[in-house]
Structure formats: C-alpha cells, structure tokens
Design goal:
With about 300 residues, the protein is an alpha/beta fold. About 40% of the residues lie in helices and about 15% in strands. The protein has one domain (about 5-295): TIM Barrel. It has helices spanning about 15-25, 40-45, 60-70, 80-85, 120-130, 150-165, 185-200, 220-230, 245-255, 265-270, 275-285; strands at about 35, 75-80, 95-100, 135-140, 170-175, 205, 210, 215, 230-235, 260-265.
Length: about 300
C-alpha cells in the first residue's frame, strides 16, 4: 500500500523517511492503527484495574507492558512516567507517549474539563534518542465544548506540528464534554469532533462511537469518517464486553463505517495475560489484516 498520501506537508524533507517508517510500523503497512490504550491509570484511576470480574494481575501496571510486549499491536499508548519505569525491560514495544491526562474525580457537570500538557514533544524526542526506545508518536486529549477548549486546541495544534517536524505520528483523543454537551454519542457531534481533528492536522483521531437507540450506528460513523478526511478515525473500545460481540462491531466499524482503527484498553487488559494477548491479537487481525470475525 502506498502510504505517502498520509504524509503531512509539515514533515520536513529530512524527516519524511522516518515519519513513513513510523507510520508503516504502527499500521503494519495497512494505514489502519491498532492502538492499545494504557492511559487509564490516570484517566479512570483504579476503577479499571481492580474490582469484580477484573483479574488481580491487572492491578499491577506491568500487566500492560507484558501484554504489549507479547501481543500484536500497532502502538502502546501510555504516560511518560510509566514508560520510563518499565521500558528498560520492555524495549521491543512500539510506544506512543500520552502528553496529557486528567482524573475523573471532578464531575463534568460541576466543572468543565481541562487537561494540560505535562511534557513537551521536545522532551519525548530527547527521551527517544537517549533511551533508544521505539517511540513512534505522541498523543493528546482535548475536550470540545469545555470553556477551556481554546487552550487545549492551541496545545494540540502545536503538539501535532512539532511531532511532524520530528518525524513522529500525532494522535488526538477528542471528546465533547461539559455542561453544554447533552449526548456524547451523537453521530453528528462526533463528526464535528472528527473535522476538528482533521483541522488540527492529526494523523489519527480517537473518538466516541456513535450510537442510536443504544446500538452502534454505522451510517452515522460514515459521516464521522468522511468528515475526518485523511485523518484516520479510531473508535474507542469502551467497557469490557463479550469478545465476539466486540470483534463483530469492530469489523463493521472498519468495513461499513470506514474507520481506520481502534483505541482499546479495557477489552484487552481486563483479562488474564494469556487471554489478553489472544484478544489483542484478534483485534490486530481485524484491524490491520482485515480479517472477518468468522475466520478468527
């Protein structure tokens, strides 16, 4: 597959080969990204890692690294601090560094969210050079509809541009949140978020899945993916559900809704290691290799 159509014009000539190498590595040459999300230690505190129907091993952050090192994934996305703590033992993992995060302690109805950048792209580039790790890109979350959206939009625009200048991929998590947002899963609203991500120059945009009457809305997802243009839409994985139902919906998201990947955390790591690896491999097969659920 010719991936040069995904090469942004703000990637300097001297960094074009590096960007395309990172893009090819992350997508397996398919243009579709299987993102293993491991940023919930901050975003959801310990709710996703300890409790009923969650294996005890998931409470240990190293569980995430064991999965990422043994399963087929595009990138493992998590915070810089976790990577620095474990990466000496897991140098084979393709990493994407989350540059911001916030907890969910303060309800969105009480205060509009603002998730400020923790570290700069330059810090990550320096870390990549000194550590020798396979850091393929950076990620950033912003909340549309928040009274602080201007600050987050500005940070996001700068992060995407600086990432490209250094040959790195830029993935944006874009979620409409705040007191003016009535339905986070409204397809038309999500399409608006996709257009914002494209306008910011993101290579991939992780978005909510559009639902109608409690069911996945493939037609609405088509509006979303069209609005994103050449930016690839990643559907979030959400709460852990039956694996066959998850994989069937994922296949429909890609082949009917025309998404270009997924960002999945709980549906992978809330399983014992062997099952988590199996699930990650299945998600990779559907996402990158285009396999039908009936053949897995």
């Amino acid at each position: 597959m010719n991936l040069t159509k995904y090469l942004p014009a703000d990637v300097p000539t001297k960094k074009e080969k590096e960007f395309l190498k990172n893009f090819k590595k992350a997508t397996g040459g398919s243009g579709r990204l299987m993102l293993f999300a491991g940023d919930q230690k901050v975003e959801h505190l310990n709710n996703d890692f300890y409790g009923e129907n969650i294996p005890a091993e998931d409470n240990d952050p190293e569980h995430l690294f064991k999965i990422a090192s043994k399963a087929n994934i595009g990138v493992f996305a998590t915070q810089f601090g976790l990577i620095s703590k474990y990466a000496r033992d897991y140098k084979n993992i393709p990493y994407l560094v989350k540059l911001n995060s916030k907890t969910n302690i303060i309800p969105y109805d009480d205060k509009d969210p603002y998730s400020k950048e923790w570290l700069s792209v330059e810090d990550i580039v320096d870390f990549k050079i000194t550590s020798g790790l396979k850091i393929l890109g950076v990620g950033y979350t912003l909340y549309l509809g928040s009274e602080y959206e201007h600050e987050m939009l500005t940070e996001a625009a700068n992060i995407v541009h600086k990432a490209h200048k250094n040959g790195l991929l830029a993935v944006l998590w874009i979620y409409p949140k705040g007191k003016y947002v009535k339905n986070e899963h409204d397809g038309h609203l999500i399409a608006g978020a996709a257009g914002v991500g494209a306008s910011l120059g993101a290579d991939f945009i992780k978005l909510k899945v559009p639902y109608k009457n409690g069911k996945f809305d493939a037609k609405a997802l088509q509006e979303v993916t069209t609005a994103a243009g050449r930016a690839g839409v990643l559907c979030e994985g959400g709460n852990k559900i039956d694996e066959k139902i998850f994989l069937k919906e994922l296949y429909e998201q890609i082949h009917v809704g025309k998404s270009r990947g997924n960002g999945t955390g709980r549906n992978i790591h809330q399983r014992e290691l062997k099952e988590a690896i199996k699930m990650a491999n299945a998600i990779y097969d559907v996402t990158v290799n285009g396999k039908n659920i009936s053949k897995i």
